[in-house]
C-alpha cells in the first residue's frame, strides 16, 4: 500500500464555474475547502464537494479508473484525467478548469463526445474493407503478432481530449483535427485490414487542418494520459503524406 | 412536446447496444442509440481480461469446441442458465470474435514455437503449432477447462468497443449522447419507446419506436464497493421493472470479483490469475490450493471470492489503515509480461495505489462486479410479457449466466446477444410494419407523468437528501447483501431498503432547477435504484438455498429439488415498497447437461427429482452418438432453430477444418 | 488525377474532389528553407568569426567568396548573387512560416493564454520562434539589403567600421540573439517534426536533442558575441580612419585598387 503521509491538509479547490445555459451567468472562480484524506483522488474530492457542499457543481466521471476518458480537465493549468490524479501530488491549492476547445456544458463538464464523433465522421476512423461479406464461420485471417501489438498500442487512445486541449494549434485553429485524429489515421494506416491507401489518407489529413497543420508543439505527446507515441506517429504520418503529396 | 420517431430505439451505447443497432440497421431499419455518455465511454470499455470463444487456436485450447464451452458455462451458472440460450451463445461466440477481428479489433495473436508461461506457480514451456501462427491468441480464465479467452492485451473491452462504435459511425447510426431514458412508454402489452431526458438541457421528450431495446449494462452502483462505473446504476433494470409488465429475472444473483484493488474497488483483471498470478495472505502464504486443490486461483469467481472472505474471517487478512485485505502477487510473471500483457493493471496499480506490480504485491479484496439478473427475455431477446421490448447485454436476463457468469463470457455475451437480438428486432420490425399506429395520447400521458415527477422534486419542498439516501443504500447492500448472506441480514436489509424507498419519495433539492442539475439526477435515480436494490435483497431473502454467487450461510446447499427455478420480480403498483416475486421452473427434462457437481466448490447439493431420469436418458443418447458430437448434441437438445439463419452453422477450427 | 476506382465499403472517398498537393509541398518547402538557412547560418557564423583569428584570415575568407583566389581578381558580384539567393530563400521561408502565425487577435490571445497556463517547454519554444521570426523578418532583410547592395564593402576594416562607426552593432546584437534562438529551436523542431534521430527510445532522443539544441545555441551566441566584440574593438580603434580598406601586408598591390 502506498504510504500516504498522515497529514490532513486543508485543500483549496479553485474551480472555474460557468453555466452557459443560464442567461445571467458569468464565468467565475469558486473556492471550496476540503480536508484531504489518504489516497484521495480528484474523483473522490469532487464527489464529496458535490455531495456535501455544492450540489450544482457539474463534472463528468464514468469509470473513475483512468480508462474511459470522461474526466479530462485542466488541473493546475494542464489537461489531465481527474479520476486518477491523487491530491497528494498537488500543493494545497488546486485549480480546476474545463478543457478548452470543446463545447462547454457547464463548470468542468465539456462535450468531448460530440467533438470526437464529428472527428470520426470527418476522418472516417474505421476499418474500410473492400470486401464486405466475410464468412465468419471460417478461421480468421492470420496477422503478425508484433503488428497486432503495434496496432493495439495506437488503439489505446481513450478519446479524452487532453491532447487537443494541450495543443496550441488546436486552441488557435478550430478546424485542426488534433493529435487524437492523426494517431487514429496512423492506426488505420498500419492495419492491414484497412484497404485504404496513402492516396486515400491524403484526402483525409493532407492539408493544414490535418497533419500539415501540426506545428510539432508536442503538448499532445506530453499530456497524453495513455502515453501514446504521438510524436513518432505524427512524424511518421507527415513523412508518408509528404511522400504522397509530392509524388508525380 | 418533442417527439422523435425511429424504427429501433436502443437504450444504451455499450457493446450490446451498439452491436444490436448495427444488426438492425444493416437489415434496413433506422436505429437511434441513447446513452448517458458517449458510446465509447460505456462501461464495456472497462473489460480488461477478454472474451470467451472456443476457437481452439492455442496449444492449451486444443480440443476446445462449443461442447466444452457449453459445459463450462452451464457448470459456472450452477445450472441456473437457460441451456438453449447457452448453446446459441457458444455457437455464435467464435463468429463474433472473427467478425470483430475483421472490424479491426487488434486481438493478441499466437506466436508459433515455444514460450514460457506460469501455470500453477511453475514455469512451463508450451509449444504453439505452426498452423496457429498469427491466429487469435487465447488465455486461461477462471472456471474453464480450456484456454479460451481471446484478448487484446488487457484492454479487450476497450479495443472491442472502439471497433464496434466505429462501425456504428460507419453505418451512420446516431448516438444521442447524454440522453437518459426515464420511462418506457407502454400500454401493458406493448412497448412504444421511451420518455427521455436531455442531461444537458433538462428537456424531456418522447422517442417513439417500433422496437425498444434495453441495453443499459449493470447495476453495480447499488453497492458501495464495486468495480462498476459510476453510471452503472441499474436504471435500465428499473425502466423495465417500473412498467409493471416486464419482469426482472434472478436479481439476487450478484457476482463479486475476487480482485478489486483495495480500497478503491477498481478491478484488476482475472487475466492476472489466468496468466499465473497468485493470491496470498498476511503471511505471504498461497492459500487457494488449501481450499480448492484442483482449480486453485482459477476456480469460478463466486468460489474464489468466498474463499477469500472465508480466509479473511480466519484472521489471515492483512490489516491496513482502510481495513483488511489480501494480496495478489503477479511479480512472478516478470516485467516484460506485465508491461506488454498487463499494462492497464500496471497503470491502475501505479496511479491508484502507488504500487509497482512488477516488484510489489497488489492489495485486493472481492468487490461487487456483475449483475447476472436483468430484464427477462426469451431466447430471441424479447420480453415474453411486453411485446416490442427487447434486452441484451448485462442488463438482460437472456439467461446464459444463471447464478454465476464466467469471466470472459460477458463481453462475449454483449456482442453475441447484439448479433442475435439485432436480428430478432429486425424480424419484429419487418413483421409489425403494418400494425396499427402508435397511440399518441399514451405518449403524451407518459411524458407528462415524468415531467410531473421531476417537478415534484423541485416544488414539493421535500426534506430528504438524495445523496444521503443513496449512500445509506449502498452501505446497506455491501454490508448485508454481500458475498455471505443470512436470512437475518437480508430481512434487515429489505426492511431498511423499504424505509429508504419511502423516504426517497420526500426528497427535496438544494438547487431546484430542471436544467442540467446533478442533484436532480441523483434524486430521480436513487428512487429507481432502491427498487432495483429491493429486487436483489428481497429475492435473496426468499431464496433459501445457495447457488452460484448467491450464497446463504444459513442454507449452504444448492437445492435443486425446490429452487431449480428462476426468480421473476415485477413491480406492480407505484406505491408498492416491495417487488412481487414469481418463479419460473427450469425444465430438467430438456436439459442437455442435467444438474450435478460443478467440479469446484462445495460438492453438496440436493437433486431435483427429475435429475436421475434425465441423466439416464442423456447418457443413452450420448452412447448412441458417441462418434458424432453434432448429432449427439442435436439429439440431446436441438437449438439451431432458435438462431437467426445468418448465424447458424458450424465453426471452423485448426482441428476441425471445413 | 488518377485514383483507385474501386469503391471501398461504406465510403465515398472516390467521389470527393481530390485534395490539393500544395500543403504537402509547402510543408516540405518550409522545412527545407529553414534547414538551408540554419545550416547557412552556421557557416556564416564561422566565416565572420574568422576575424577572431586575424584580420588576414577574415580578409582571405572575404576574398575567397569574391572569387579572388580562383580568378586572381575579386568579383563582389558573386557575393551579391549569393545574398540574393539567401534573401529569396529567406523570403520564401518567411512567407511559408508566417502562415503559422496567429492570424488574428483571438488566436493570439488563445495561444498566449494557453502557453502561460501550460508551462510546457516545446510550446513556449514555439512562441519564441514566432517572436524571433517576426524580428528576423525586419532585421535580416535590412542586413541582407546592405550586403546585396554593397557586396564589396566587406572586409576587416569595412565591416568593423560599419559595426562601430556605422552604428550597426545594436542591430547585429539583436539579430544575433534572434537568429541563434530561432535557428536552434528550428533545427530541434525539424528533428521532432520529421522523426529524425529518433532511435529506439524517442523520449531519450528528444531529451538529448534538446540538450544539443541549447549547447549549439550557447556556442553560437558566444562565438557571435566574441566576433561582434572583435569588430567593435577594431572599429573603435580604426574609427579615425573609417572607410579605409584593409590590405594584408603580403598582398601587393591592393586588389581593390587594381579593380577596374
Ligand atoms: C471492471 C470490469 C471489467 C470487466 N472485465 C470483463 C472481462 O474481462 N470479460 C468479460 O467478459 N466481461 C467483463 N466485464 C463485464 C462486461 O464488461 C460488462 O458486463 C459488459 O461490457 C456490459 O456491456 P453492456 O453493453 O451490456 O453495457 P455497458 O457497456 O455498461 O453499457 C451500458 C450503456 O447504457 C447506457 N445507459 C444506461 N442507462 C441508461 C439510461 N437510463 N438511458 C440511456 N442510456 C443508458 C450507458 O450510457 C451505456 O452506454 C467487466 C466488467 C467490469 C466492471
Ligand atoms: C524572415 C524571417 C523569418 C521568419 C518570419 C521565420 C518564421 C518562422 C516560423 C514562424 C517558424 C515555425 C514554423 C512552424 O512551426 O511550422 C519557423 C521555422 C523555422 N525557421 Fe524560421 N523564420 C525566419 C527566418 C529564419 C532563419 C533566418 C532561419 C535560419 C536560421 C530560420 C530557420 C527556421 C527553421 C529551421 C525552422 C523549422 C522549420 C519547420 O518547422 O518546418 N528561420 N520560422
Ligand atoms: C549571403 C548572405 C549574407 C552575407 C554575405 C552576410 C555577411 C555578413 C558580414 C560580412 C557580416 C560582418 C558584419 C558586417 O560586415 O556588417 C555579417 C554579420 C552578421 N550577419 Fe550576416 N550575412 C548574410 C546573411 C545573414 C543572415 C541571413 C543573417 C540572419 C538572419 C545574418 C546575420 C548576421 C549577424 C547576426 C551578424 C553579426 C555577426 C556577429 O555578431 O558575430 N547574416 N554578415
Ligand atoms: S491521444 Fe492520448 S490525449 Fe489524445 S485523446 Fe487519445 S488518449 Fe487522450
Ligand atoms: S501539440 Fe499540437 S501542434 Fe502537433 S505535435 Fe501535438 S498536435
Ligand atoms: S472517469 Fe474514466 S478516465 Fe476518468
Describe this structure in words.
The complex is a heterotrimer of chains A (248), B (658) and C (260). By secondary structure, chain A is an alpha+beta fold. Chain A is 35% helix and 14% strand. In chain A, α3 packs antiparallel against α6, α6 packs across α9 and α7 (198-205) packs across α9 (230-245). Chain B is built from 18 helices and 24 strands. Chain C is elongated and about 70 Å long. Chain C has helices at residues 22-48, 55-65, 68-71, 76-98, 105-118, 121-149, 156-164, 169-194, 202-237, 255-258. Chain C has 260 residues and is mainly alpha-helical. Chain C is 70% helix and 0% strand. At the A-C interface, α5, α7 and α9 of A face α1, α5, α6 and α8 of C.
Brief write-up:
The complex is a heterotrimer of chains A (248), B (658) and C (260). By secondary structure, chain A is of the alpha+beta class.
Provide tags for this entry.
A: 248 residues; alpha+beta; Fumarate Reductase Iron-sulfur Protein, Chain B, domain 2; 5-stranded mixed sheet; elongated; C: 260 residues; mainly alpha; 10 helices; binds flavin-adenine dinucleotide; binds iron/sulfur cluster; binds FE3-S4 cluster
Topology:
The complex is a heterotrimer of chains A (248), B (658) and C (260).
Chain A: E1 10-17, E2 28-35, H1 42-53, E3 72-75, E4 78-81, E5 93-97, E6 104-106, E7 109-110, H2 112-123, H3 145-155, H4 162-165, H5 168-172, H6 178-190, H7 198-205, H8 219-223, H9 230-245
Helix pairs in contact in A: 3-6, 6-9, 7-9
Chain B: E1 3-11, H1 15-26, E2 31-35, E3 51-52, H2 66-76, H3 83-103, E4 113-119, E5 122-128, E6 138-139, E7 149-150, H4 156-170, E8 175-177, E9 179-186, E10 191-198, E11 204-214, H5 235-242, E12 248-249, E13 254-261, H6 271-274, E14 278-280, H7 288-291, H8 301-316, E15 318-320, E16 323-329, H9 335-341, H10 343-353, E17 362-371, E18 374-376, E19 389-391, E20 396-397, H11 409-432, H12 440-459, H13 466-480, H14 487-504, H15 518-542, E21 558-559, H16 560-563, E22 565-570, E23 580-585, E24 605-606, H17 611-624, H18 629-636
Parallel strand pairs in B: 1-2, 1-11, 2-8, 11-19, 18-20, 21-24
Antiparallel strand pairs in B: 3-7, 4-5, 6-7, 9-10, 10-11, 12-18, 12-22, 13-17, 14-16, 15-16, 16-17, 22-23
Helix pairs in contact in B: 1-4, 1-11, 2-3, 3-11, 5-15, 9-10, 13-14, 13-15, 14-15, 17-18
Chain C: H1 22-48, H2 55-65, H3 68-71, H4 76-98, H5 105-118, H6 121-149, H7 156-164, H8 169-194, H9 202-237, H10 255-258
Helix pairs in contact in C: 1-4, 1-8, 1-9, 4-6, 6-8, 7-9, 8-9
The complex binds flavin-adenine dinucleotide (FAD), protoporphyrin IX containing FE (2 copies), iron/sulfur cluster, FE3-S4 cluster and FE2/S2 (inorganic) cluster.
Amino acid at each position: 500500500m502506498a504510504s500516504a503521509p498522515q497529514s490532513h491538509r486543508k485543500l483549496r479547490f479553485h474551480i472555474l464555474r460557468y453555466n452557459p445555459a443560464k442567461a445571467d451567468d458569468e464565468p467565475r472562480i469558486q473556492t471550496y475547502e476540503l480536508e484531504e484524506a489518504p489516497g484521495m483522488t480528484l474523483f473522490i474530492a469532487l464527489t464529496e464537494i458535490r455531495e456535501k457542499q455544492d450540489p450544482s457543481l457539474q463534472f463528468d466521471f464514468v469509470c473513475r479508473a483512468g480508462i474511459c476518458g470522461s474526466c479530462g480537465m485542466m488541473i493546475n493549468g494542464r489537461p489531465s484525467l481527474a479520476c486518477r490524479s491523487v491530491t497528494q501530488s498537488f500543493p494545497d491549492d488546486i485549480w480546476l478548469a474545463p478543457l478548452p476547445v470543446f463545447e462547454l456544458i457547464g463548470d468542468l463538464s465539456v462535450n468531448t463526445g460530440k467533438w470526437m464523433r464529428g472527428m470520426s465522421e470527418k476522418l472516417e476512423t474505421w476499418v474500410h474493407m473492400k470486401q464486405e461479406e466475410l464468412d465468419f464461420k471460417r478461421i480468421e485471417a492470420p496477422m503478425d503478432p508484433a503488428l497486432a501489438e503495434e496496432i493495439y498500442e495506437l488503439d489505446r487512445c481513450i478519446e479524452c481530449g487532453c491532447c487537443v486541449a494541450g495543443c496550441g494549434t488546436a486552441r488557435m485553429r478550430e478546424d485542426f483535427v488534433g493529435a487524437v485524429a492523426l494517431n487514429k489515421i496512423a492506426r488505420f494506416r498500419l492495419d492491414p485490414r484497412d484497404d485504404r491507401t496513402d492516396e486515400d489518407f491524403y484526402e483525409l489529413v493532407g492539408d493544414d487542418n490535418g497533419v500539415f497543420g501540426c506545428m510539432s508543439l508536442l503538448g499532445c505527446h506530453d499530456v497524453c494520459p495513455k502515453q501514446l507515441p504521438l510524436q513518432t506517429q505524427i512524424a511518421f504520418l507527415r513523412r508518408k503524406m509528404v511522400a504522397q503529396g509530392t509524388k508525380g | 412536446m418533442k417527439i422523435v420517431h425511429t424504427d429501433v430505439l436502443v437504450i444504451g451505447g455499450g457493446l450490446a447496444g451498439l452491436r444490436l443497432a448495427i444488426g438492425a440497421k444493416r437489415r434496413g431499419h433506422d436505429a437511434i442509440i441513447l446513452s448517458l455518455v458517449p458510446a465509447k465511454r460505456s462501461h464495456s470499455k472497462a473489460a480488461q481480461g477478454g472474451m470467451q470463444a472456443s476457437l481452439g487456436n492455442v496449444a492449451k485450447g486444443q480440443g476446445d469446441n462449443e461442447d466444452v464451452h457449453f459445459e463450462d458455462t452451464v457448470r459456472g451458472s450452477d445450472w441456473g442458465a437457460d441451456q438453449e440460450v447457452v448453446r446459441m451463445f457458444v455457437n455464435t461466440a467464435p463468429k463474433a470474435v472473427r467478425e470483430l477481428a475483421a472490424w479491426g479489433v487488434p486481438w493478441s495473436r499466437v506466436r508459433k514455437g515455444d514460450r514460457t508461461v506460469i501455470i500453477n506457480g511453475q514455469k512451463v514451456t508450451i509449444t504453439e503449432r505452426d498452423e496457429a501462427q498469427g491466429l487469435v491468441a487465447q488465455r486461461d480464465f477462471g472456471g474453464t477447462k480450456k484456454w479460451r479467452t481471446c484478448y487484446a492485451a488487457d484492454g479487450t473491452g476497450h479495443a472491442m468497443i472502439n471497433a464496434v462504435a466505429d462501425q456504428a459511425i460507419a453505418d451512420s447510426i446516431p448516438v444521442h449522447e447524454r440522453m437518459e431514458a426515464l420511462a418506457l412508454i407502454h400500454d401493458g402489452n406493448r412497448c412504444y419507446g421511451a420518455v427521455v431526458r436531455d442531461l444537458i438541457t433538462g428537456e424531456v421528450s418522447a422517442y417513439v419506436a417500433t422496437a425498444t431495446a434495453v441495453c443499459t449494462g449493470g447495476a453495480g452502483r447499488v453497492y458501495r464497493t464495486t468495480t462498476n462505473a459510476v453510471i452503472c446504476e441499474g436504471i435500465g433494470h428499473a425502466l423495465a421493472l417500473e412498467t409493471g409488465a416486464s419482469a426482472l429475472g434472478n436479481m439476487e444473483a450478484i457476482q463479486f470479483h475476487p480482485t478489486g484493488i483495495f480500497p478503491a474497488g477498481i478491478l484488476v483483471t482475472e487475466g492476472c490469475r489466468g496468466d499465473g498470478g497468485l493470491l496470498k495472505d498476511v503471511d505471504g502464504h498461497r492459500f487457494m490450493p488449501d481450499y480448492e486443490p484442483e482449480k486453485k486461483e482459477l476456480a469460478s469467481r463466486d468460489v474464489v471470492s468466498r474463499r477469500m472472505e472465508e480466509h479473511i474471517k480466519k484472521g489471515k487478512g492483512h490489516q491496513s489503515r482502510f481495513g483488511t485485505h489480501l494480496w495478489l502477487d503477479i511479480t512472478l510473471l516478470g516485467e516484460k509480461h506485465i508491461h506488454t500483457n498487463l499494462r492497464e493493471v500496471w497503470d491502475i496499480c501505479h496511479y491508484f495505489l502507488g504500487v509497482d506490480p512488477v516488484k510489489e504485491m497488489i492489495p485486493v479484496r472481492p468487490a461487487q462486479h456483475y449483475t447476472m439478473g436483468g430484464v427477462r427475455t426469451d431466447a430471441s431477446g424479447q420480453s415474453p410479457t411486453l411485446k416490442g421490448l427487447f434486452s441484451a447485454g448485462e442488463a438482460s436476463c437472456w439467461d446464459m449466466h444463471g447464478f454465476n457468469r464466467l469471466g470472459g463470457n460477458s463481453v462475449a455475451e454483449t456482442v453475441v446477444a447484439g448479433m442475435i437480438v439485432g436480428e430478432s428486432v429486425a424480424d419484429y420490425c419487418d413483421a409489425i410494419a403494418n400494425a396499427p399506429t402508435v397511440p399518441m395520447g399514451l405518449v403524451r400521458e407518459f411524458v407528462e407523468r415524468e415531467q410531473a415527477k421531476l417537478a415534484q422534486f423541485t416544488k414539493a419542498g421535500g426534506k430528504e437528501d438524495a445523496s444521503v439516501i443513496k449512500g445509506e443504500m449502498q452501505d446497506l447492500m455491501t454490508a448485508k447483501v454481500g458475498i455471505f448472506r443470512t436470512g437475518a441480514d437480508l430481512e434487515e436489509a429489505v426492511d431498511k431498503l423499504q424505509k429508504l424507498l419511502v423516504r426517497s419519495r420526500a426528497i427535496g433539492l438544494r438547487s431546484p432547477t430542471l436544467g442540467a442539475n446533478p442533484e436532480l439526477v441523483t434524486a430521480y435515480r436513487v428512487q429507481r435504484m432502491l427498487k432495483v436494490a429491493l429486487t436483489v435483497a428481497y429475492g435473496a431473502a426468499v431464496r433459501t438455498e445457495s447457488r452460484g454467487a448467491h450464497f446463504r450461510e444459513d442454507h449452504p446447499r444448492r437445492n435443486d429439488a425446490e429452487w431449480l427455478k428462476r426468480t421473476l420480480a415485477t413491480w406492480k403498483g407505484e406505491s408498492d415498497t416491495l417487488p412481487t416475486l414469481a418463479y419460473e421452473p427450469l425444465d430438467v427434462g430438456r436439459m442437455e447437461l442435467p444438474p450435478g457437481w460443478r467440479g469446484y466448490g462445495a460438492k453438496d447439493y440436493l437433486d431435483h427429482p427429475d435429475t436421475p431420469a434425465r441423466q439416464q436418458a442423456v447418457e443413452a443418447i450420448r452412447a448412441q452418438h458417441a462418434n458424432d458430437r453434432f448429432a449427439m448434441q442435436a439429439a440431446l437438445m436441438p437449438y439451431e432453430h432458435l438462431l437467426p439463419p445468418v448465424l447458424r452453422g458450424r465453426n471452423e477450427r485448426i482441428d476441425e477444418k471445413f | 488525377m488518377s485514383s483507385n476506382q474501386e469503391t471501398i465499403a461504406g465510403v465515398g472517398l472516390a467521389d470527393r474532389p481530390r485534395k490539393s498537393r500544395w500543403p504537402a509541398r509547402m510543408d516540405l518547402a518550409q522545412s527545407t528553407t529553414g534547414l538551408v538557412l540554419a545550416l547557412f547560418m552556421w557557416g556564416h557564423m564561422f566565416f565572420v568569426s574568422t576575424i577572431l583569428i586575424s584580420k588576414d584570415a577574415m580578409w582571405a575568407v572575404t576574398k575567397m567568396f569574391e572569387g579572388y583566389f580562383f580568378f586572381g581578381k575579386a568579383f563582389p558580384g558573386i557575393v551579391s548573387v549569393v545574398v540574393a539567393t539567401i534573401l529569396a530563400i529567406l523570403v520564401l521561408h518567411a512567407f511559408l512560416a508566417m502562415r503559422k502565425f496567429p492570424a488574428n487577435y483571438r488566436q493570439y490571445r488563445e495561444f498566449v493564454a494557453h502557453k502561460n497556463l501550460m508551462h510546457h517547454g516545446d510550446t513556449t519554444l514555439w512562441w519564441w520562434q514566432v517572436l524571433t521570426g517576426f524580428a528576423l523578418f525586419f532585421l535580416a532583410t535590412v542586413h541582407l539589403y546592405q550586403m546585396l547592395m554593397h557586396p564589396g564593402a566587406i572586409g576587416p576594416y569595412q565591416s568593423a567600421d560599419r559595426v562601430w562607426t556605422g552604428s550597426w552593432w545594436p542591430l547585429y546584437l539583436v539579430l544575433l540573439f534572434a537568429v541563434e534562438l530561432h535557428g536552434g529551436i528550428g533545427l530541434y523542431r525539424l528533428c521532432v517534426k520529421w522523426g529524425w534521430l529518433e532511435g529506439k527510445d524517442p523520449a531519450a532522443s528528444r531529451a538529448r536533442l534538446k540538450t544539443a539544441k541549447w549547447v549549439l545555441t550557447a556556442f553560437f551566441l558566444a562565438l557571435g558575441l566574441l566576433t561582434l566584440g572583435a569588430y567593435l574593438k577594431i572599429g573603435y580603434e580604426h574609427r579615425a580612419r573609417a572607410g579605409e580598406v584593409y590590405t594584408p601586408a603580403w598582398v601587393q598591390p591592393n586588389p581593390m585598387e587594381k579593380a577596374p
